[in-house]
Protein 1
Amino acid sequence: MAYFGNNQQRGELQELYADLNDLNFEKKKEAIKKVIAYMTVGKDVSQLFQSVIKCLEFQDIEMKKLIYLYIVNYSRQKPDDAIMVIQNFRKDVRKSENPLVRALAIRTFGCLRVPKLNEYLIEPLKDCVQDDDPYVRKTAVLCVPKVFEVSPELCPALLEQLQKLLEKESNALVLANLIQSMREIEVVNGKQLIVLNPKIIQKLLLAIDECMEWGQIFILDYLATYDPVDSKQAEIIIERTLPRLSHINPTVTFCAVKLILKYLDYLNNGDLVKNLCKKISPSLISLLSWNQPEIQYTILRNISLILQKFPILFENEVKVFFCSFNEPYYIKYEKLDIMVRICDSKNFHQVLNELMIYINEADPHFVRKTIKSIGKIAVMYDKALAEAVSILVEFAKNVQQTNEAVQELFIQMQIIYRKNRNLYKTNDSLKILFSIIDYANEPEAKSACAWIIGEFAEFIPKSVEKMGEYVDNFILEDRLVQLQILTSGVKLYIKYPSLCSALIQQLINSAKDSFNPDVRDRTYIYWRLLSTDPEIVKNLICYVAVGSSQFQKDIRLWETKDLITALENMGSISNLFHKLPNQLYKNIKVRNNNQQEVKIYKADEKQEVPSKEQEIKKDDQIQQQQQQPKQDFDLLNFEEPVSNNNNNNNNNNNNNNNNNNNNNNNNNNKIDVYDLI
Amino acid sequence: MISSLSFINQKGEILIYRVYKDDISRNEITQFCAKMIATKENKEFPIINIDQTSFIHISIKDIIILATTKTDVNVAMVLEFLYQLSKICKSYFQGNLDENCIKKSFVLIYEILDEVLDYGIPQIADPNLLQKFIQEGGVQQETTINIEKLRQLTFTLTGVVSWRPIGLYYEKNELYLDIIESVNLLISAKDTVLRAEVVGSIELKSKLTGMPECQIGMNDKLLMGKQQKQTKQTIGISIDDMKFHPCVRLPKFDKDRTITFIPPDGHCQLISYRISENINIPFKVNVFYSEIIDNKLEIRLKIKSIYDNNIYGTNVLVKVPVPKNTVNAITATALGKARYEVEEQSVIWRIKKFQGDFETSLRCEINLGTTNKDQVWSKPPLKMEFQIPMFTASGLRVRFLKVMEKAGYKTNKWIRYLTKGGEYLHRL
């Protein structure tokens, strides 16, 4: 039988029509298969509706399934025709002794999704919810949300029936599906439907042991959203969940981990918490080396959340996150990210040693990310500084211009110098950087170079000449670079007034007419300042930030107040993208009324007060707490390093500035005087 | 939950398309397919979210299985489900899943898809179980007409022991155990072990009558410590983590670490485990790369096997990376064969049989072409593959396997051990 016939002739539908109406059963069956094949490739075969449903008379179950598939696909296009099959369905549901046929009928019935057909469905559905056969019951339970979605007004009695079933159902599989089905209805309805009491919880816990893997996931997932009433209850539920950590289905394990992690907050026994952590850790690590990369990836994406709240779980486990040569790149990137987070003042040596290897890999993005990570570690831990810088310098010695990662090198070195100005004294990093300074061509890298030249002009040979080159090409540069060239140019001028007077003139001339208001504004400010009192400019621009606080910011991936909501949703799609459900899905409400606009990637300026859940585990992990790894976006994406720096300085010297402005205003006639200085 | 499932071929054509919820259109999927074929990124990232619609996919050789959803589902669950679905399909097609099979048996696949998901919620995903009532060309009439048998079937489907049907009978009761370990090893250029880990699995193949109650015992340190005073022989090994087939009673294991179960009929992976302590590394590798002088590079390699000399490693393969501009390689070795393979960019050294406690070496002279001279060559790691029967790198042993059944029959039990090279890497 042809599946993708290329030579579809016009008469095909007619041919099928004839076959469907043929008296020969086999011929009919073949014809129906063909119809389904056309449907799959997207060809419209809805015209055959009448002929197809006529074939329902036969009791052949394979054929029945195909016809049902067809009906489901076209029922909404042909609601009037679909009404003709209702009788068939009802007959199947009510009269058939075969539980598979009953279940099949009720399942398909629910998928018709034609509002006016649903009223015929309610009664048989009610019967099926009470069917003797658990398989039919299970199917009926899942049929309720289907009907509810299309015609909620028909359902109140059904929902009540479900609630009753929740109390008396004894089959574990039916119970698990019941929970899932009621949750689906809750999502559509927006109202709570499942009412838990200790007896039902007890039943659910028993059901975990008895139902198949998916059922276990439904129940665990649901219980993870429940808030236990006290420590005792939390303890009982955790105890029943623990065995699931050894299930072969990674999702069962993961859901169990999620549930236990959430309930830990409710325990008031510190030792128990510690013990539980010891049990969870190996299980989680097994998931991290899972042999299906896609699953490994989803788990990795959730690690940062766990790491933020439970650093204790990965104590001494950096090795788990080492990248292996043949891994898919999306896994490598995640691992790299986590390695920086997990790095602390104890294990930085191990991490840096590993990162050093990655520098030689072939994937340029990966190398670039590695350089970035090394830079971050250098800034985060003073102890790691020397080692990290020596790796970067080594890289700089052998690097080639074509290597994209060299751009990142400039950016990172700039940030490191900003924090540790005296670094230039201890090694030859400056000299080496300057020797490859022409490699910089990305705006951010160029601006980093411009900053380095301005800052360390006196230690770099030919710094003025280099700056001259930058000034020559000023107009062609990106705004970011222009701003930095301006500041650095002024710095050079302060440092070598006589040597650079021509340079500064050229610079201000080309900058004052810039199309960019930022550049223009800054030009004028410098201009006026220079023309008033170069001494002030010196204080202002050559101001040396000591231990600037912007490098010690503790920026976490998740805001502390979101942690619990995030944890409850661990493993979900929103969590995978490091967002809360209501941020990804507009129609979803988050429990706990957590409705505020929360932007996660944004840095939180304030020092955070440890929240309740962190206090609980504080004893175990004061140390880790203090070394909360930083997030990607803290030091690296601060939008324009240059202006930030200056803003800070400006703030620091706010009074000065105001005075200056006043002075300027008073001495307007002095504006052009800079020529004479 | 899951809104739709599709099977897609390499060209981005939809082979199978099944909708479970109404919130997705075929159009969205065709658009996504086009995108996926167009860019590498879309193809490789397992999950992509476009405007509140999530596309989750896995690739099984040339076939992409794609699930879509508009709700905030558990991603790992969807992925695991897709993998299980691929396993189900493979079990119907004798281990293959390719475009031809799918086209030929699309009716069967639709039947499967009808059963594994309902309203996008995963249901039965056990291949053995599905085989009982879904078969190519329809199940034999007997089972579909006999109501008593049908009752039994639905009872099994929804029951506590859903993986094993009632009333199995075998003339000869047999049971096969395979312990397969793969060693993941990462050694730094300075010859220190960065990571050594064994990921193992215990595969069970059973042909047993009735509903046998089984118990398996390994030399698990925690278990043995409990049972008796430790003598030299009975000191067990410590297992970091074990994961069990659904048939194993987990609460019992959690309580006293005994592993009891009623096995599924036929083949299953009973246990998978991970061990990171005291790994017996089977091969020690010494490698030396000379400086490149006059477009010539010399590589010397020494391999020593560190297992008993009555055991043999088989199909040993060493991948020695060489620069891209290699022209040819002259190799000299006493054991096996080595030659330069362009597509692998390596000298591949194959040894059919490698005795235990034995040392052998390889010497290669690599002639390089003159192109891209100043490009520094970053060496990928050296990789090894091997199989060593009757050896476990972790030292794991099965101590007993008890089978108890009402009928009290005798069971023939067979056991095999095998250690394989997993990610067995030496950095250079």
Protein 2
Amino acid sequence: MAELGAGSLLLGDPAFNYQEAELNERLKRLYPAVNEDETPLPRSWSPKDKYSYIGLSQNNLRVHYKGHGKNHKDAASVRATHPIPAACGIYYFEVKIVSKGLDFLSSLLPLSPIPGWDKHSYGYHGDDGHSFCSSGTGQPYGPTFTTGDVIGCCVNLINNTCFYTKNGISLGVAFTDLPPNLYPTVGLQTPGEIVDANFGQQPFVFDIEDYMSEWRAKIHGMIARFPIGERLGEWQAVLQNMVSTYLVHHGYCATATAFARATETLIQEDQTSIKNRQRIQKLVLAGRVGEAIEATQQLYPGLLEHNPNLLFMLKCRQFVEMVNGTDSEVRCFSVRSPKSQDSYPGSPSLSPRHGATNPNLHSAGADSPTCSNGVTPPNKNKSHNKYPGVSSASSSSSSSPSSVNYSESNSTDSTKSQPHSGTSNQEETSDSEMEIEAEHYTNGVAENPSARIMNGTYKHQEILQAQDISLGNGVAEDSCASRQLCGGNQAATERMIQFGRELQGLNEQLCREYGKNVTHKKMLQDAFSLLAYSDPWNCPVGQQLDPMQRENICSALNSAILESQNLPKQPPLMLALGQATECVQLMARVRSGSCSFARVDNFLH
Amino acid sequence: MACLLEAPLRISVLSEVTATSRHYVDRLFDPDPQKVLQGVIDMKNAVIGNNKQKANLIVLGAVPRLLYLLQQGSSSSELRAECAVVLGSLAMGTENNIKSLVDCHIIPALLQGLLCPDLIFIEACLRCLRTVFISPVTPVQLLYTDPTVIPHLMSLLSRSQRTQEYITQIFSHCCKTPEHQTVLFNHGAIQNIAPLLISPSYKVRMQALKCFSVLAYENTQVSMTLVNVLVDEELLSQVFVRMMQRDQPIDMQLTAAKCLTYMCRAGAIRTDDSCIVLKTLPCLVRMCSKERLLEERVEGAETLAYLMEPDVELQRIASVTDHLVAMLADYFKYPSSVSAITDIKRLDHDLKHAHELRQAAFKLYASLGSNDEDIRKKITETENMMDRIVSGLSESSVKVRLAAVRCLHSLSRSVQQLRTSFHDHAVWKPLMKLLQNAPDEVLVMASSTLCNLLLEFSPSKEPILESGVIELLCSLTQSDSPALRVNGIWALMNMAFQADQKVKGEIVRALGTEQLFRLLSDPDSNVLMKTLGLLRNLLSTRPHIDQVMSSHGKQIMQAVTLILEGEHSIEVKEQTLCILANIADGNTAKELIMTNDDILQKIKYYMAHSNVKLQLAATFCISNLIWNEEDGSQERQDKLRELGFVDILHKLTQASDPNLCDRSDTATHTSDLSPAFLQILSSIDRQTGTNTCTLIVL
């Protein structure tokens, strides 16, 4: 164990850091499915799990023998720091024989699951070229190897086999039916024997990526050819339903109708209901949260009362939008101010119409978020034309204070219906979602960070981001300079401050009723912090003002509405996507190596 | 078509078909061009997938009419294109269809059609030409009769992806000889086709690749050019390597590996280049695996055998790659017992490929074992290997027999195998049987193997001798094929090595002196060498020398003189001087040299020759002549001293070659009658006196 220190000597070395970066990059490329927080990859020999005859050096990558080497009893081995994660799919490491020593036996026991060294270990011996499988008697396997040779070991976790390579040439399968959780291991027996490991620190001599590509193609082919069953028509119906429900969910009314017509399917939800939801979503996405709340209360009475957390989130957002100058409660003050036209950074092309007093033009304003939604552009124009009058929404914008009262009074009602609510809305959503998803695997899934995928924003969000950026850039020139708190209107600012107080009150009330809520507090703090900066758009919490932040609350509200209508709160498409993603992760946990090559991303274009 | 419905009502089923077909043909003669066009289109729809209909139309003479319409300048381009499409469809039928089309001179007509500017028409013509040319019944020479065709096809390569696909496919099927390769090469095939390797269309890439594989096969000029070609700033070999990636279609991997193999064998790529060692070879080994189709396994094994044939290092690498040696044993398991019972279709498929698989495996084993003793051992230790070879030697398929005997020949280079497995399995028996009646190529391999089996340490030598092999070998020496003559005389040479008088006598008798001397003037130097070797082996041990020389001395001395005077290689002259040395070792035979001043002068000449080997052999001869333990040695020494040999020997003691020094030393000392050296000399001469020649055939 004297060598232990030597292993970490070079830690500060810049060359080492460079190598470390290269290693990380290579491992990431080779094993993209491995979650190293759960299952770390082997990166060096373990100074703990080794015989005393073994010495380690050069960042625990070089192994040398320091025993007597008189007989087989003097053989010693060392294993890697971690076992091979199943999510690798195909794992590979190499060992270079730096010096073979004077005597004969040089063995490579790549895999030893327990520090018992002998049981369940598999090896390829250099002196006779035999392979050894959990026993002292070997089978003729490959050629012998000696100084200068590079010996590689590839573990295929898909079919649980293993083969070795010598100087970049595959020697053929050595073992089948391998057990899980194997460790890379080397064994030495001769004084003077030195071997260097390569866990990915350097390019491998054997083209492992080529081998992986074959298996990737195999598994993709398997997926592509997976028998769907004879009921082909039903399969098609399922697909059509997936598309249709997705369109309906996001309120792409015209597209959904057109799709339904073309495929001769039925839409579950009523047309008006879809349009209502679409309208509310557009309002939220346009930053006119006050109007959205109003519209929701009008169209779905009792909904927000039953979801005080959602209401609070909405209100917080409304406050942020007031700061932004986009909410109608502050916008109504600035109608006469030409500057306000540019104040909404998210909809540059349509902003001139925002300033207009004509309430009918709401539809035009509401159109702007569809731009950012961007997934099904064809419906844009149609919905535009078919859009019914929105006078109710626009007229209510002036009476916004009432909406606050509304919610305050309603929230008392919700006490009965919503006895819990210890967590934030968002987490709650994902938690319950997870329960639906993975009923059979309740453990270990709930805290999964990937739960966000269930929220229907997966990928979709990325697209939005990209578009928002491009839109934002376009506006940056004319809007940045004129961006002012609440559109720069004094009255609006006062209204905002008043609203803030009401929001504070709502929070306190919720606290009294449901107990303290950390997430709410944080939300409120973040929102109020905006006021502490002269330029809220360029402050540490300024990200809240980004129109993209409306996405989350928008989809939460949409889901809540759908749920209240006894419709699925997630479109089946996103559900299936989430399920597939989760399934692949589950495969990694149950040690099915093929998960490495069946990643959902590979199929999303 | 009202008329179509009408017909069946009136006539029997058989003639009904002819009648409808007749109707199609009749419509081609309609005066209204529009109706003709519609007729052709209807015909197109009628023949698709209907071989019977195609045959009928051909019999009824539709082809000449279609060709006429196609060639007619007055026809609309649409009509011409439709005609080409129908002809293409007809070509898709049976081989008989193709024959009929070719007999109607469809090829020149279509080639002529390619001159038309209309792309759709060109594509239809090319599609039809492609179908005709890929058929084995079409003589490929038809593509090369008109010298303007190839350049025109090259120029059409840029027109569309379809023209690219069809033209490259035509090229790859019509490039069968080195002349074809040269024609295509001279018309810029490489520059024109190389960019197609990165075409977006898989079919185009594949056909272009196939083109390169046939162009590069055993063609140094093409291969050397290929290595320097850049495609999109990437070396062609790298493009091929990418095409061999494991996620590429198998066909592409295999064909790319072929290209690189041919380039390597033509010397354009070194055998230790990583694209050969780490890419091509492993790729070909993968093609031999059980997972591949039988056809792919055959091609993979044959290509691999070809790749590593001349290179022992590649053979060593292949022998440890993916258990290749064991993997090949699987090639003999078709048709498998399972398939015979369960699946007739598979049995049929297996049977069809069984021969091909076996011969490919034998070829690959032959290649693997051609140099390395350890690999040979590994091969013979593979399950039932020797039994398989033995049964392969008597298979009905000539291809399998040839491959089996090649494999056997390769393994027969191993002294150990000759002593063990070859003897245990009585390999000589089927081999002898094979030699009785076989095509020349099999005969060459079999007789080569026999040469090795007749080596003095081979336990099979005795039984072979008893089976009357001498007559057979003597008849081989009269063959027209130099390879067979060499093998025949070579086997006899090996047989005569340290043989008893009876065998030697039998050889001389069976061969006949006339044939022996005819072989000494054989135009093939290999035959000459081996004949000299045979003579040398016959003229070993004193009694044999005297006996042979007493009966054939005159002719032998004549032949030796002729060879020494003639224009021959150093090796031949050396061998001849060795024969003289052997003659000089005889008791009575010596006199044939001592009385021949001409020969003595020649020996003297070669003692002072610039080539050490010849000096050595000549000195050897002298030392045998002057060896003083025999009668008359004194007189011989005197005569030689007179002729000035001693001076030369003295000079030679100062020579740089230690071997020569030693020899001339003993010679000078012997002539000085120095008794001390005589003992040493006698031992050396005993050895040299029986100097014989035996070689393993490589």
Protein 3
Amino acid sequence: MSGQTQRLNVVPTVTMLGVVKARLVGATRGHALLKKKSDALTVQFRQILKKIVSTKESMGDIMKTSSFALTEAKYVAGDNIKHVVLENVREASLKVRSRQENVAGVKLPKFEYTNDGEVNKNDLTGLARGGQQVQQCRAAYIKAIEVLVELASLQTSFLTLDEAIKTTNRRVNALENVVKPRLENTISYIKGELDELEREDFFRLKKIQGYKKREIEKQMQSAKMFAEEQVAEKLALQRGISLNNAQNMLSAAAQKDEDIIF
Amino acid sequence: MYGFEAMTFNIHGGYLEAIVRGHRAGLLTTADYNNLCQCESLDDIKMHLSATEYGPYLQNEPSPLHTTTIVEKCTLKLVDDYKHMLCQATEPLSTFLEYITYGHMIDNVVLIVTGTLHERDVQELLEKCHPLGMFDSIATLAVAQNMRELYRLVLVDTPLAPYFSECITSEDLDDMNIEIMRNTLYKAYLEDFYRFCEKLGGATAEIMSDLLAFEADRRAVNITINSIGTELTRDDRRKLYSNFGLLYPYGHEELAVCEDIDQVRAVMEKYPPYQSIFAKLSYGESQMLDKAFYEEEVKRLCLAFEQQFHYAVFFAYMRLREQEIRNLMWISECVAQNQKSRVHDSVVFIF
């Protein structure tokens, strides 16, 4: 894993340092924001979960009541009432519409049902027997549909939120464990490179200074030697002796003669 | 001649009356119903039923069993019994037996017509029809595009033809509400059946007129209650009441103007036989009315078996079987849906 947090391959210049620092700042801010978003989504998630549990329980009861209402209707109006009602239907009167709701930045689908057809006052199903039971059965099933539509909304929101939370958490973790360390490593690398360059420069400067000094000393040495030679030459000219002797004289003169007391 | 049927009835009707009485002995008793109510699952029900007359029809069904399968197989048994009796019958018993099934025939015709109007598939519709009400040309009902053609092409050959011509003119056929048409046909059928029984005379006429009068009155009450608050006008309502029965004509006048259940109750309490039914209900409640009517019907049907040498036993047997199948459906649904506490709400014990 440590191999993953390498650094970016950049040219280690001061400009790049500025750029990478700016990116680090952006990453930090993004990390904080995404964490907040993830927390908000998780809160919503828990609420929806609670609602789903209670709705499912009530749905179990309601479905039981409505199937029993159907049994009562079948008992009184004859077993065929199912087919009679089915054959008499033209189109559905209860319709479900879906719309989008924005929750903490996530678009959740929400279903609601509308009663499109007019309440059929003229519905004479089971006129001779069982009409009342048929109407009661219809009322029971309308209630069941209400609960089912709500449950469908809640479950789709649940799934969508789940996806959204997973994605957000993935991004948060990615920023925290990959992007930021990478950027930090890059910054330290650039700084290191810059320091090294500076050191190189300094070193080079010092070296050059050293050379210059030696040059100067050499020149001084050669100048001194030249001056000595000049003096020897003068002496040679004055006394008419060879340079060598002159030099020897000079050097001897430079030395102390025992013979000479003063 | 009334009173001398003992001499001549057994020549033609003796065998079949014996058969019907044998079937009646095979109806489920209170003990059977108690056992069935104690069942925990549909397989238990199947096991209990295999000891009764329904055994051979249910034993080949694979589990998991479904409530609709149980009802289907029991209905199949009823149809088999009926067909057996119909084959053996002579006139006028065979016409009588056919009259019993015209009610189901009307239901089937109305179902297929509705389905065709809404463009459904004919084969599916045929499967949904009641088996007792099938007739040969029923599939051709789907061909007709509107009601007039329907009558001209198909219905004129069926036994239902006179009901159509009597009460419905061709303009009415087109824009009549399907339920009103069904109830008008049924009214014509009841009146026709009543006249036929009167013609037969003797004990048959006496017992059948009592049973049919009860049916007509019960339909009148149901129509009144179910049309409260709908757009059905009073005149339309009056047209759907039959022309015989205890409530005819004064009861019908009063029922036609009723606007809620308490008014209906006030009307019905003037007639002693129905007073006891309505006494069982508390004020404002009408849920138990259907069960009360079923109980009263079963009581009268059982009484029909007390006399001999008449055709009403066949009618009574068919109706009692239908009630038994309804009971079985109720019990199986309660067991399947885990609502055992509601079982006794609607089971009508036959004996």
